[in-house]
Write a structure and sequence with these properties.
It is built from 13 helices and five strands. The chain is of the alpha/beta class. It has a five-stranded parallel beta sheet, with helices on both faces. Strand 1, helix 9 and strand 2 form a beta-alpha-beta unit. The protein is elongated and about 65 Å long.
Length: 278
C-alpha cells in the first residue's frame, strides 16, 4: 500500500472544512498514521486518539460522510486508483504555513479596490466613542485594534466581556454618542457575540464586522462585513490574515483623523524614552 495516496486524499478532504479542536486531533492522527487509516474502524480510531466514538462520528459527518465505513472506503479508493495527489515537498509545518500564505494572498487580492475598507474606516473614525468588541478567540484582535487606534482616536472602548457587561457598556457608549461599533467575529463564532450585536442594534448602533466569511456566522448582524480567511490547518486557528486586515483598517483610519495625537504620542515617547530604539 502506498500511504502517500491516502495522505493526499486526506489533505483533499480536510482542505476547506471547519473542524473543532477535537476533530483536528483526529485529522492529525490520521495524517500521522496514513497506513492505519484504511484499516481502522470508528471505535479503534476513537481509542487511538483518546476521544469518544461520537466525536469520530461527528468528524466524518463534518467531512460529508454518512458514517465511518463510507469515509474509510473513500480512503481505500485512493489506494486502488492511485489518483491521490503526491505530497508536496517540505514538512507538515511548512505546509501549514503555506496555507496561511495563500490566505494572505487572498486578502491582498480582495484589497485591489479598497473602497469598502475606506468607507468602514471613515465611519469608525467618526464615531465618538468607538466601541470595539471581541469575545473569546477574537478578544486579542479587538485588543490589538484598540491599542493601535487609541493612538489617534480620542475614545476607543474595547469590550471583551459577554452578557450583561457587554450590553451595559454598549448602552453607555450609545448614550455617549457612539454611532458605530467594530466587532471581531472569528470561528468558532460565540453565541454571546450574536446576542451582543443584536443588543447593539437595539441601542441604535451600526456595525462593522471583521470575520472570515461574508455569509453565515454572525455576518447577518452587520452593516459592513470585512473578510479575511482563517487557517484551520493548525491545532487552533491561525489568524494572520485577520491581523493584517486589522492593521490595514487602523492604517486607513489614521489617514482620516488629525495627525496631532499621533505626533504628541511620538514626542512624549521620545521624551520619556519609552522604547529601546527610535
Amino acid at each position: 500500500m502506498d500511504s502517500s495516496d491516502v495522505s493526499a486524499r486526506l489533505r483533499e478532504l480536510l482542505d476547506g472544512h471547519r473542524l473543532s479542536p477535537s476533530q483536528r486531533r483526529i485529522a492529525r492522527y490520521l495524517q500521522d498514521h496514513p497506513h492505519e487509516a484504511v484499516f481502522l474502524n470508528g471505535m479503534d480510531l476513537a481509542k487511538a486518539v483518546g476521544i469518544s466514538q461520537p466525536s469520530v462520528t461527528r468528524f466524518v459527518a463534518a467531512l460529508g460522510f454518512a458514517g465511518f465505513p463510507e469515509f474509510r472506503d473513500h480512503l481505500r479508493a485512493a489506494v486502488r486508483d492511485g489518483q491521490g495527489a503526491r505530497p508536496q515537498a517540505g514538512s507538515e509545518l511548512q505546509s501549514m504555513v503555506d496555507s496561511e500564505i495563500r490566505n494572505l494572498e487572498r486578502l491582498r487580492d480582495s484589497l485591489d479596490e479598497p473602497g469598502r475598507l475606506a468607507e468602514a474606516a471613515a465611519a469608525l473614525a467618526a464615531s465618538r466613542p468607538l466601541p470595539v468588541v471581541g469575545l473569546r478567540v477574537s478578544a486579542p484582535l479587538a485588543s490589538l485594534f484598540g491599542f493601535l487606534a487609541a493612538k489617534v482616536h480620542p475614545d476607543i472602548r474595547v469590550i471583551d466581556a459577554p452578557g450583561s457587561t457587554l450590553e451595559d457598556r454598549l448602552s453607555r457608549a450609545a448614550e455617549a454618542g457612539a454611532t458605530w461599533l467594530l466587532a471581531f467575529g472569528l470561528p468558532r463564532y460565540p453565541r454571546e457575540l450574536r446576542e451582543g450585536l443584536s443588543w447593539a442594534r437595539r441601542c441604535g448602533l451600526r456595525i462593522v464586522l471583521v470575520t472570515d466569511h461574508a455569509v453565515g456566522g454572525v455576518a447577518d448582524q452587520a452593516d459592513v462585513v470585512l473578510t479575511a480567511p482563517v487557517s484551520s490547518r493548525f491545532a487552533f486557528d491561525s489568524q494572520a490574515a485577520p491581523a493584517v486586515l486589522c492593521a490595514a483598517l487602523v492604517h486607513m483610519m489614521i489617514n482620516m483623523l488629525p495627525a496631532a495625537p499621533l505626533e504628541d504620542f511620538e514626542s512624549g515617547a521620545a521624551e520619556r524614552k519609552l522604547f529601546l530604539t527610535d
